[in-house]
Amino acid sequence: MSSSSPTPDPGPAPLRLARLMWAVVLAVLLYGGFALWADLDQLIPALQQVPIKVVILACALSAVNYGFRFLRWQLYLQRLSIDVPWRPSLQIFLAGLVMSISPGKVGEVLKSALLRRSFGVPVARSAPVVFAERLTDLLGLFAIGALGVLTFEFGAGVFVGALAAVLALIGALQSQTLINALLTGVGRIPRLARLQAPLRQAYSSTRTLLSPTLLGATTLLSALSWSLEGLAFWCILDALGASELTLYKALFVYAISTLLGALSFLPGGLGLTEGSMVGALMLLGLFTANAPALAATYLIRLATLWFGVGVGALSLLSYERRPPTGHSDSL
User: Fold this and answer.
1) In the structure, what pLDDT confidence band is assigned to residue 89 with cuts at 50, 70 and 90?
2) Helix (H, G, I), strand (E, B) or coil at 103
Protein backbone atom coordinates (compact mmCIF):
# COMPACT_ATOMS: atom_id res chain seq x y z
CA MET A 1 0.00 0.00 0.00
CA SER A 2 1.52 3.26 -1.06
CA SER A 3 0.91 6.66 0.42
CA SER A 4 1.72 10.06 -0.92
CA SER A 5 3.11 12.82 1.23
CA PRO A 6 1.59 16.26 0.98
CA THR A 7 3.30 18.69 -1.32
CA PRO A 8 5.29 21.15 0.80
CA ASP A 9 4.02 24.70 0.80
CA PRO A 10 6.42 26.79 -1.28
CA GLY A 11 5.46 29.87 0.74
CA PRO A 12 5.58 33.36 -0.65
CA ALA A 13 7.62 34.10 -3.71
CA PRO A 14 11.09 35.44 -2.91
CA LEU A 15 11.39 39.18 -2.67
CA ARG A 16 12.28 40.64 -6.05
CA LEU A 17 15.21 42.86 -5.19
CA ALA A 18 15.27 44.15 -8.76
CA ARG A 19 12.04 46.03 -8.11
CA LEU A 20 13.53 47.63 -5.03
CA MET A 21 16.62 48.58 -7.00
CA TRP A 22 14.50 50.27 -9.66
CA ALA A 23 12.78 52.26 -6.93
CA VAL A 24 16.18 53.26 -5.55
CA VAL A 25 17.31 54.31 -9.03
CA LEU A 26 14.13 56.35 -9.45
CA ALA A 27 14.75 58.02 -6.09
CA VAL A 28 18.35 58.85 -7.02
CA LEU A 29 17.25 60.41 -10.32
CA LEU A 30 14.50 62.43 -8.65
CA TYR A 31 16.71 63.56 -5.82
CA GLY A 32 19.49 64.37 -8.26
CA GLY A 33 17.07 66.54 -10.23
CA PHE A 34 16.04 68.36 -7.07
CA ALA A 35 19.70 68.83 -6.18
CA LEU A 36 20.46 70.43 -9.55
CA TRP A 37 17.42 72.67 -9.05
CA ALA A 38 18.77 73.81 -5.70
CA ASP A 39 22.42 73.93 -6.84
CA LEU A 40 24.81 71.54 -5.10
CA ASP A 41 27.08 74.35 -3.94
CA GLN A 42 24.14 75.64 -1.84
CA LEU A 43 22.61 72.27 -0.93
CA ILE A 44 25.71 70.66 0.57
CA PRO A 45 26.33 73.49 3.10
CA ALA A 46 22.64 73.29 4.07
CA LEU A 47 22.93 69.54 4.72
CA GLN A 48 26.09 70.09 6.75
CA GLN A 49 24.21 72.57 8.91
CA VAL A 50 22.21 69.74 10.51
CA PRO A 51 24.12 67.95 13.32
CA ILE A 52 24.27 64.17 13.04
CA LYS A 53 22.59 63.89 16.45
CA VAL A 54 19.48 65.55 14.99
CA VAL A 55 19.36 62.96 12.20
CA ILE A 56 19.78 60.16 14.77
CA LEU A 57 16.97 61.68 16.86
CA ALA A 58 14.75 61.80 13.77
CA CYS A 59 15.43 58.10 13.12
CA ALA A 60 14.71 57.30 16.78
CA LEU A 61 11.34 59.06 16.54
CA SER A 62 10.60 57.02 13.42
CA ALA A 63 11.42 53.87 15.39
CA VAL A 64 8.93 54.86 18.10
CA ASN A 65 6.42 55.43 15.29
CA TYR A 66 6.95 51.80 14.26
CA GLY A 67 6.31 50.79 17.87
CA PHE A 68 2.86 52.40 17.86
CA ARG A 69 2.08 50.91 14.46
CA PHE A 70 3.13 47.47 15.73
CA LEU A 71 0.67 47.90 18.59
CA ARG A 72 -2.01 48.60 16.00
CA TRP A 73 -0.95 45.48 14.06
CA GLN A 74 -1.26 43.40 17.23
CA LEU A 75 -4.72 44.82 17.97
CA TYR A 76 -5.85 43.82 14.49
CA LEU A 77 -4.45 40.29 14.79
CA GLN A 78 -6.07 39.88 18.20
CA ARG A 79 -9.45 41.08 16.93
CA LEU A 80 -9.28 38.48 14.12
CA SER A 81 -8.17 35.76 16.60
CA ILE A 82 -4.89 35.28 14.74
CA ASP A 83 -2.59 33.88 17.42
CA VAL A 84 1.07 34.64 16.67
CA PRO A 85 3.82 34.91 19.32
CA TRP A 86 4.92 38.52 19.64
CA ARG A 87 8.54 38.01 18.58
CA PRO A 88 7.84 36.53 15.13
CA SER A 89 4.88 38.90 14.84
CA LEU A 90 7.26 41.84 15.34
CA GLN A 91 9.68 40.43 12.78
CA ILE A 92 6.87 39.99 10.25
CA PHE A 93 5.59 43.50 10.90
CA LEU A 94 9.03 45.08 10.50
CA ALA A 95 9.76 42.98 7.40
CA GLY A 96 6.74 44.59 5.77
CA LEU A 97 8.48 47.98 5.98
CA VAL A 98 10.78 46.94 3.13
CA MET A 99 7.74 47.31 0.87
CA SER A 100 7.15 50.92 1.92
CA ILE A 101 8.39 51.90 -1.54
CA SER A 102 5.66 49.90 -3.28
CA PRO A 103 2.73 51.91 -4.72
CA GLY A 104 0.44 52.79 -1.84
CA LYS A 105 2.46 50.35 0.31
CA VAL A 106 0.27 47.54 -1.05
CA GLY A 107 3.41 45.40 -1.18
CA GLU A 108 3.11 45.11 2.59
CA VAL A 109 0.76 42.20 1.89
CA LEU A 110 4.11 40.40 2.14
CA LYS A 111 3.22 40.20 5.85
CA SER A 112 0.17 38.10 5.01
CA ALA A 113 2.32 35.79 2.89
CA LEU A 114 4.71 35.31 5.81
CA LEU A 115 1.83 34.64 8.21
CA ARG A 116 0.50 32.02 5.82
CA ARG A 117 3.83 30.27 5.38
CA SER A 118 4.84 30.26 9.03
CA PHE A 119 1.51 29.98 10.86
CA GLY A 120 -0.97 28.69 8.30
CA VAL A 121 -3.10 31.85 8.35
CA PRO A 122 -5.05 32.17 5.06
CA VAL A 123 -4.06 35.28 3.13
CA ALA A 124 -7.74 36.12 2.64
CA ARG A 125 -8.11 36.29 6.41
CA SER A 126 -5.06 38.45 7.19
CA ALA A 127 -4.70 40.68 4.10
CA PRO A 128 -7.51 42.98 5.33
CA VAL A 129 -5.15 43.91 8.20
CA VAL A 130 -2.82 45.55 5.66
CA PHE A 131 -5.79 47.31 4.08
CA ALA A 132 -6.99 48.55 7.48
CA GLU A 133 -3.48 49.79 8.28
CA ARG A 134 -3.36 51.86 5.10
CA LEU A 135 -6.87 53.18 5.69
CA THR A 136 -6.16 54.30 9.25
CA ASP A 137 -2.80 55.75 8.13
CA LEU A 138 -4.77 57.98 5.77
CA LEU A 139 -7.30 58.88 8.48
CA GLY A 140 -4.47 59.71 10.89
CA LEU A 141 -2.82 61.97 8.32
CA PHE A 142 -6.17 63.62 7.57
CA ALA A 143 -6.62 64.28 11.30
CA ILE A 144 -3.17 65.90 11.57
CA GLY A 145 -3.55 67.98 8.42
CA ALA A 146 -7.18 69.07 8.80
CA LEU A 147 -6.69 72.24 10.85
CA GLY A 148 -3.66 73.19 8.78
CA VAL A 149 -5.66 73.03 5.57
CA LEU A 150 -8.25 75.37 7.07
CA THR A 151 -5.57 77.73 8.38
CA PHE A 152 -3.09 77.82 5.50
CA GLU A 153 -5.46 76.99 2.61
CA PHE A 154 -2.82 74.75 1.06
CA GLY A 155 -4.11 71.73 -0.89
CA ALA A 156 -7.66 72.23 0.38
CA GLY A 157 -9.38 70.93 -2.76
CA VAL A 158 -7.39 67.69 -2.95
CA PHE A 159 -7.66 67.26 0.83
CA VAL A 160 -11.46 67.55 0.94
CA GLY A 161 -11.96 65.40 -2.16
CA ALA A 162 -9.67 62.64 -0.89
CA LEU A 163 -11.26 62.68 2.57
CA ALA A 164 -14.73 62.40 1.03
CA ALA A 165 -13.58 59.44 -1.09
CA VAL A 166 -12.09 57.62 1.92
CA LEU A 167 -15.20 58.19 4.04
CA ALA A 168 -17.39 57.01 1.15
CA LEU A 169 -15.29 53.84 0.88
CA ILE A 170 -15.69 53.16 4.60
CA GLY A 171 -19.43 53.74 4.32
CA ALA A 172 -19.69 51.35 1.37
CA LEU A 173 -17.76 48.65 3.21
CA GLN A 174 -20.17 48.94 6.14
CA SER A 175 -23.09 48.07 3.84
CA GLN A 176 -23.42 44.28 3.90
CA THR A 177 -26.23 44.42 1.35
CA LEU A 178 -24.07 46.24 -1.18
CA ILE A 179 -20.97 44.08 -0.69
CA ASN A 180 -22.93 40.81 -0.68
CA ALA A 181 -24.57 41.83 -3.96
CA LEU A 182 -21.15 42.54 -5.49
CA LEU A 183 -19.75 39.22 -4.25
CA THR A 184 -22.77 37.36 -5.59
CA GLY A 185 -22.13 39.00 -8.95
CA VAL A 186 -18.51 37.85 -8.82
CA GLY A 187 -19.71 34.28 -8.20
CA ARG A 188 -21.75 34.36 -11.39
CA ILE A 189 -18.70 35.07 -13.55
CA PRO A 190 -17.13 31.70 -14.44
CA ARG A 191 -13.54 32.89 -14.38
CA LEU A 192 -13.98 34.67 -11.05
CA ALA A 193 -16.30 32.25 -9.27
CA ARG A 194 -13.45 30.57 -7.40
CA LEU A 195 -12.57 33.92 -5.81
CA GLN A 196 -15.97 34.32 -4.17
CA ALA A 197 -15.17 32.29 -1.03
CA PRO A 198 -11.84 34.00 -0.22
CA LEU A 199 -13.37 37.40 -0.99
CA ARG A 200 -16.20 36.69 1.46
CA GLN A 201 -13.64 35.71 4.08
CA ALA A 202 -11.65 38.87 3.38
CA TYR A 203 -14.78 40.99 3.66
CA SER A 204 -15.69 39.36 6.97
CA SER A 205 -12.25 40.30 8.34
CA THR A 206 -12.48 43.80 6.87
CA ARG A 207 -15.87 44.45 8.43
CA THR A 208 -14.55 43.30 11.81
CA LEU A 209 -11.55 45.64 11.59
CA LEU A 210 -13.70 48.62 10.59
CA SER A 211 -16.02 48.41 13.59
CA PRO A 212 -16.50 51.96 14.95
CA THR A 213 -14.70 51.38 18.28
CA LEU A 214 -11.66 49.71 16.75
CA LEU A 215 -11.54 52.18 13.85
CA GLY A 216 -11.53 55.10 16.29
CA ALA A 217 -8.79 53.59 18.47
CA THR A 218 -6.52 52.67 15.56
CA THR A 219 -7.00 56.03 13.87
CA LEU A 220 -5.89 57.69 17.11
CA LEU A 221 -2.83 55.43 17.20
CA SER A 222 -2.10 56.33 13.58
CA ALA A 223 -2.35 60.06 14.24
CA LEU A 224 -0.04 59.72 17.25
CA SER A 225 2.52 57.64 15.34
CA TRP A 226 2.63 59.96 12.32
CA SER A 227 2.88 62.97 14.65
CA LEU A 228 6.19 61.56 15.88
CA GLU A 229 7.59 61.75 12.35
CA GLY A 230 6.18 65.27 12.12
CA LEU A 231 8.12 66.05 15.31
CA ALA A 232 11.25 64.65 13.68
CA PHE A 233 10.62 67.01 10.76
CA TRP A 234 10.33 69.93 13.18
CA CYS A 235 13.73 69.03 14.69
CA ILE A 236 15.33 69.08 11.24
CA LEU A 237 13.66 72.35 10.26
CA ASP A 238 14.79 73.92 13.52
CA ALA A 239 18.38 72.84 12.88
CA LEU A 240 18.19 74.47 9.44
CA GLY A 241 16.99 77.77 10.93
CA ALA A 242 13.48 77.81 9.45
CA SER A 243 11.70 81.17 9.85
CA GLU A 244 8.64 81.49 12.10
CA LEU A 245 8.79 77.75 12.75
CA THR A 246 6.12 76.13 14.92
CA LEU A 247 5.43 72.46 15.59
CA TYR A 248 1.97 73.05 14.14
CA LYS A 249 3.43 74.13 10.78
CA ALA A 250 5.90 71.23 10.71
CA LEU A 251 3.15 68.70 11.42
CA PHE A 252 0.94 70.18 8.74
CA VAL A 253 3.61 70.24 6.02
CA TYR A 254 4.69 66.70 6.82
CA ALA A 255 1.13 65.36 6.95
CA ILE A 256 -0.16 67.01 3.77
CA SER A 257 2.97 66.06 1.77
CA THR A 258 2.89 62.46 2.96
CA LEU A 259 -0.82 62.29 2.25
CA LEU A 260 -0.38 63.58 -1.32
CA GLY A 261 2.40 61.07 -1.90
CA ALA A 262 0.27 58.18 -0.60
CA LEU A 263 -2.73 59.16 -2.72
CA SER A 264 -0.57 59.41 -5.84
CA PHE A 265 0.11 55.65 -5.68
CA LEU A 266 3.66 56.31 -6.85
CA PRO A 267 6.27 53.96 -5.33
CA GLY A 268 6.92 55.44 -1.89
CA GLY A 269 5.24 58.63 -3.11
CA LEU A 270 8.59 59.43 -4.75
CA GLY A 271 8.65 62.80 -6.44
CA LEU A 272 5.25 64.10 -5.39
CA THR A 273 5.95 63.89 -1.65
CA GLU A 274 9.28 65.67 -2.03
CA GLY A 275 7.95 68.28 -4.45
CA SER A 276 4.91 69.13 -2.33
CA MET A 277 7.05 69.28 0.80
CA VAL A 278 9.51 71.75 -0.74
CA GLY A 279 6.63 73.77 -2.19
CA ALA A 280 4.77 73.95 1.13
CA LEU A 281 7.90 75.00 3.02
CA MET A 282 8.44 77.82 0.54
CA LEU A 283 4.77 78.82 0.38
CA LEU A 284 4.47 79.09 4.16
CA GLY A 285 7.62 81.21 4.31
CA LEU A 286 9.65 78.75 6.39
CA PHE A 287 12.45 79.13 3.84
CA THR A 288 13.12 81.68 1.15
CA ALA A 289 15.68 79.58 -0.75
CA ASN A 290 15.38 76.16 -2.36
CA ALA A 291 18.52 74.64 -0.83
CA PRO A 292 17.48 74.50 2.87
CA ALA A 293 13.95 73.40 1.94
CA LEU A 294 15.35 70.59 -0.16
CA ALA A 295 17.88 69.67 2.55
CA ALA A 296 15.03 69.34 5.06
CA THR A 297 13.13 67.16 2.60
CA TYR A 298 16.13 64.91 1.90
CA LEU A 299 16.84 64.40 5.59
CA ILE A 300 13.27 63.66 6.72
CA ARG A 301 12.82 61.16 3.89
CA LEU A 302 16.11 59.54 4.90
CA ALA A 303 14.96 59.31 8.54
CA THR A 304 11.49 57.99 7.67
CA LEU A 305 11.07 56.26 4.30
CA TRP A 306 14.61 54.98 3.72
CA PHE A 307 15.28 54.23 7.37
CA GLY A 308 12.11 52.12 7.36
CA VAL A 309 13.13 50.30 4.17
CA GLY A 310 16.49 49.50 5.77
CA VAL A 311 14.88 48.21 8.97
CA GLY A 312 12.47 46.15 6.87
CA ALA A 313 15.25 44.62 4.77
CA LEU A 314 17.24 43.58 7.85
CA SER A 315 14.11 42.16 9.52
CA LEU A 316 13.17 40.19 6.40
CA LEU A 317 16.66 38.72 6.10
CA SER A 318 16.55 37.77 9.78
CA TYR A 319 13.11 36.22 9.47
CA GLU A 320 14.10 34.21 6.39
CA ARG A 321 16.77 32.48 8.48
CA ARG A 322 14.13 31.03 10.78
CA PRO A 323 13.57 27.28 10.38
CA PRO A 324 10.36 26.49 8.43
CA THR A 325 7.34 25.53 10.53
CA GLY A 326 5.75 23.34 7.89
CA HIS A 327 2.38 25.07 7.98
CA SER A 328 0.31 25.01 4.81
CA ASP A 329 -3.04 26.46 4.11
CA SER A 330 -5.13 27.65 1.23
CA LEU A 331 -5.91 31.20 0.37
Assistant:
1) very high
2) strand
Domain ranges of the chain: 40-121+133-153+212-320
Of the candidates 300, 317, 269, which has an alpha carbon nearest to the alpha carbon of residue 101? 269
Rounded to 10 degrees, the C-alpha dihedral 87/123/209/75 comes to 0
Bridge partners (DSSP) listed for residue 267 = 103
Segment 98-136, tens digit of pLDDT: 888 877 677 788 899 999 988 999 999 999 999 999 999
Residue 141 and residue 258 in contact, taking contact as beta carbons nearer than 8 Å: yes
List 133's β-bridge partners, or say none: none
What is the reported pTM? 0.85
- Of 48-52, 80-84, 194-198, 309-313, the poorest mean pLDDT is in 194-198
What DSSP state is assigned to residue 75?
Answer: H
What CA–CA distance (Å, rounded) separates 291 from 73?
A: 38
- Give, as one character, the DSSP assignment of residue 106: G
